[in-house]
């Protein structure tokens, strides 16, 4: 990480003064907001001040950051010129209302919603895939975080595309209910209990029962029969990786609390052997390959929950197309699919010297 460090010596002690940042999280009480707080602490991102922001109805609620408890402030009353970095995870409507205003006030906004992902003046970033695009952040002081399913997909595709150029991809997702927020997780929990005679199983968050079921529908239908969730995946992959990749997607909601899975079929321009693909993926950043021909030689969402990596399993030849491979890709959607990627973007901004450090120094005494 690119923290700027200044060492001072005196007859009595050595002081290392580390520049830290003033950080605000909008949507701090949500699933992803809480994960952002946890991961900033886990990765030792240099924070001098932390502010938790939410809507007026959540004002006064408390969240944890390390050993501290922080009381949520009302976004309407907050002065954004007093912070250096804002992590935004409060949905597209809030982001469309606030992100550009916040950017003009000075801090850089890392936005987890879909509001600015297609904006040509806003970089859409997965640090393992297109870190060089971060330079565009200064245009609006906004960086977009991709859709949770896209993030893990492009991490797996990038090294293979560099090696053999992907012509076409077919992706079917198996997306957990946490992708729909706390309400989605509550609905799965309540419906599961209700089916055993302990309550009402009527769908509220999802259009049909999610417990013991799968729903081939996420988002809203478009005129072409695809959903906007499916369109996000190809739009974002084209923006970050390569607009020439032909990509078709079916997004499915499954009764899993945390962790998205994807069955991926790839067609390449040149032959690529399973062993070569496995070696390429093992050497790639952010990926763990768990691929043994054994009963438990693959990763499931339960295995990936709480982990940082994108896991790849079931790497095998697809004999139905020329130069084809099949993959199984799994990741914790609240982490790499959202909060972790946002914090990694913050680390990238720090490494590139793109965050101002008006918050001064934190002083650590050593020796």
TrEMBL record:
The lineage of its organism: Bacteria, Pseudomonadati, Pseudomonadota, Alphaproteobacteria, Caulobacterales. GO terms for biological process: 'de novo' L-methionine biosynthetic process; diaminopimelate biosynthetic process; isoleucine biosynthetic process; lysine biosynthetic process via diaminopimelate; threonine biosynthetic process. Catalyzes the NADPH-dependent formation of L-aspartate-semialdehyde (L-ASA) by the reductive dephosphorylation of L-aspartyl-4-phosphate. The keyword NADP applies. Residues 22-137 form the Semialdehyde dehydrogenase NAD-binding domain. NADP(+) binds at residues 29-32, 57-58, 178-179, 333. HAMAP family: ASADH (MF_02121). Substrate binds at residues 175, 253. One of its GO terms (molecular function) is aspartate-semialdehyde dehydrogenase activity. Its EC number is 1.2.1.11. Homodimer. It comes from the Bacteria. NCBIfam families: asd_B, PRK05671.1, PRK14874.1. The keyword Amino-acid biosynthesis applies. Gene3D superfamilies: Dihydrodipicolinate Reductase, domain 2 (3.30.360.10), NAD(P)-binding Rossmann-like Domain (3.40.50.720). Keywords: Amino-acid biosynthesis, Diaminopimelate biosynthesis, Lysine biosynthesis, Methionine biosynthesis, NADP, Oxidoreductase, Threonine biosynthesis. The gene is asd. It is an enzyme of class 1 (oxidoreductase). It comes from Brevundimonas abyssalis TAR-001. Phosphate binds at residue 117. The active site is at residues 148, 260. Belongs to the aspartate-semialdehyde dehydrogenase family. It holds the Pfam family Semialdhyde_dhC. It catalyses: L-aspartate 4-semialdehyde + phosphate + NADP(+) = 4-phospho-L-aspartate + NADPH + H(+). This is Aspartate-semialdehyde dehydrogenase. Pathway: Amino-acid biosynthesis; L-methionine biosynthesis via de novo pathway; L-homoserine from L-aspartate: step 2/3; Amino-acid biosynthesis; L-lysine biosynthesis via DAP pathway; (S)-tetrahydrodipicolinate from L-aspartate: step 2/4; Amino-acid biosynthesis; L-threonine biosynthesis; L-threonine from L-aspartate: step 2/5.
């Amino acid at each position: 990480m690119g923290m700027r460090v200044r060492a001072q010596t005196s007859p009595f002690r050595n002081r290392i003064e580390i520049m830290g940042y003033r950080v605000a999280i909008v949507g701090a009480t949500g699933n992803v907001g809480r994960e952002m707080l946890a991961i900033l602490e886990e990765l030792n991102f240099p924070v001098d001040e932390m502010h938790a922001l939410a809507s007026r109805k959540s004002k006064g609620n408390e969240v944890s950051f390390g050993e501290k408890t922080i009381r949520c402030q009302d976004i309407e009353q907050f002065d954004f010129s007093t912070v250096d970095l804002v992590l935004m995870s409060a949905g597209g409507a809030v982001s469309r209302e606030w992100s550009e205003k916040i950017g003009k006030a000075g801090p850089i906004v890392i936005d987890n919603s879909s509001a600015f992902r297609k904006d040509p003046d806003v970089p859409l970033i997965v640090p393992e895939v297109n870190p060089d695009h971060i330079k565009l952040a200064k245009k609006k002081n906004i960086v977009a975080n991709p859709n949770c399913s896209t993030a893990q997909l492009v991490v797996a595709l990038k090294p293979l595309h560099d090696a053999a150029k992907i012509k076409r991809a077919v992706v079917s997702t198996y997306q957990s209910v946490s992708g729909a927020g706390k309400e989605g997780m509550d609905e799965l929990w309540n419906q599961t209990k209700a089916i055993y005679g302990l309550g009402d199983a009527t769908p509220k968050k999802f259009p049909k029962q999610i417990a013991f079921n799968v729903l081939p529908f996420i988002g809203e239908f478009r005129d072409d029969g695809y959903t906007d969730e499916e369109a996000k995946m190809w739009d974002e992959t084209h923006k970050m990786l390569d607009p020439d990749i032909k990509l078709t997607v079916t997004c499915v909601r499954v009764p899993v609390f945390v962790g998205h899975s994807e069955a991926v079929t790839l067609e390449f321009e040149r032959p690529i052997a399973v062993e070569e693909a496995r070696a390429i993926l093992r050497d790639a950043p952010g990926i763990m390959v768990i691929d043994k021909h054994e009963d438990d030689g693959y990763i499931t969402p339960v295995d990936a929950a709480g982990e940082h990596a994108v896991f790849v399993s079931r790497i095998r030849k697809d004999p139905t197309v020329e130069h084809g491979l099949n993959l199984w890709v799994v990741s914790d959607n609240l982490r790499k699919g959202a909060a972790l990627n946002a914090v990694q973007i913050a680390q990238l901004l720090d490494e590139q010297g793109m965050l101002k450090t008006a918050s001064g120094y934190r002083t650590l005494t050593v020796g």
